[in-house]
Amino acid sequence: DPQERIRHLKAQRQPFYASADWVVKTDQLSVDEVALEVIRAWERLRGRRPDKASEGPDAPACVVTTNTASYPIHVGWSELSRLGQRMRALGLSGAAYVISDDQVLPLYGARVEGSLREAGFSVAAVAVPAGETSKSLAEASRLYDWLVAQGAERGSAIVALGGGVVGDLAGFVAASYLRGVPFVQVPTSLLAMVDASVGGKVAVDLPQGKNLVGAFYQPRLVAIDVSTLRSLSPRHLTEGWAELVKHGLILDADLFAFLEAKADALLRLEPDVTVQAIARSVAIKARVVSEDEKETGLRTILNYGPPIAHALETATEYSALLHGEAVAIGMRCAARIGQRLELTPAEVVARQDGLLDRMHLPAKPPRFNVEAALEAMQRDKKVRAGAIRWVLLEALGRAVVRDDVPFSLARDVLLELSP
Asked: Model pTM?
């Protein structure tokens, strides 16, 4: 059985693929073209690995290296106090403009501003209303007006202090103001730490869908202070675990097993365990982004769950579900699609659902408009030639991308969510 033999070989080799410095996709390439890709990878990565950092107590957890940028990601328990020093070490100076929201700025604004001033920056800060509705062109326009009034110049840095909404909005403004100014991510939600802050995807929403206007714009630095998670509400903390679970499911079975073993400690936010889990999850995202900055290949694999998650968010007008909650539901749906295609083993579905349950992530959304969700799914920016690209699981830590999933099957799974 050649197909079974290939599947067996792939399972044996997957751990080595996952630890590789670079992956050359040889499909449709000639021998000469493969050789050129190997040479290009060697020249880019010579002397260091893109997802590994230098050793030492003050070294970053990992480094993202793309065709357009290279930047460190620091993960620790007191990173806010080191922010100014980190930025100066990267050659940033002058003015720093902190964009936050009206819930996070009162909590951490003074600490961030103090760190920046101690490092010699002049500082101004502004808060937008908390919540997804701030990710709009109208709010971006108000921030442009504020930056102009402040006299912000091309060398000025924008610091995004907050969750994924603030990071996406501030990053979009940084990418477009004066054709691009330096940008620093300081995520304070778990979801933003392990997902939105890494990879340079910045955007605002339109009424027709989520993240429909945006850019790929890499930050100069990501500073993750895990202690800020203590101020999150239980629900906002819980949603972030969905992304760590997802990284384990699609690329790292060992991380998934670690999350299973340490679930109780993670829910208590025990410092050492939580820092370790976040650093491991971020390193996975860093490795994927380093290889595929603009989602033309491997990065697509991160979309395990989002086709249905984004559809549910749109159908509920971004008000009934937090993003991580929607992703958790989307992962459960994707697992069932994979199972019905006889691709995803029942054991994988059971372990996934078991860990999502332990992390208190939802299995179903509140009442929603099914037809609106179906329409949003077909309009998603990840659709290619009318086909939705589904990320499905072959095994724990091993995912595949399929564009041959019948829409009727996705519709059936979505209908099962309806009350």
From this structure: 0.81
Under 8 Å between Cβ of 191 and 163:
yes
CA dihedral for 273, 279, 280, 281, sign (positive or negative): positive
| Pairing between β-strand 122-128 and β-strand 70-76 as defined by DSSP bridges | unpaired
Supply 212's token pair.
């429909």
What b/e string do you get for 156-177 counting C-beta neighbours within 10 Å, with b at 16 or more?
A: bbbbbbbbbbbbbbbbbbbbbb
Sheet holding 70-76, edge to edge: 62-65, 70-76, 221-225, 183-187, 157-162, 95-101, 122-128
86: part of which helix (H) or strand (E)? helix 83-89
Helix axes 323-340, 407-417, angle to 10 degrees: 130
CA atoms within 13 A of residue 284's CA, in its CB half-sphere: 26
Structure tokens at 270: 């025990």
Residue type for 45, please? L
Distances (CA, A) of 328 to 125, 209, 239, 299, 399: 34, 19, 8, 19, 16
Backbone dihedral angles phi then psi of residue 276, each to the nearest 5 degrees? -65, -45
* Residue 221 CB contacts under 8 Å (≥ 6 apart), including other chains: 71, 72, 74, 86, 87, 90, 184, 185
Beta bridge partners of 162: 187
Q: How far apart are CA 287 and CA 47, in angstroms?
A: 16
Q: What is the mean pLDDT of each run of 10 residues along the chain (419 residues)?
A: 83 68 78 83 57 62 89 94 96 97 98 98 98 95 98 96 97 97 97 94 90 95 97 94 96 95 96 96 92 81 91 86 94 96 96 98 89 84 71 94 91 84
pLDDT of residue 18: 62
Count of beta carbons in the 10 Å neighbourhood of residue 384: 10
User: Using CA atoms, how far apart are residues 233 and 231, in angstroms rounded to an integer?
Assistant: 7
Structure tokens at 287: 């490795």
- Cα dist. 316→43, 163, 306 in Å? 48, 20, 15
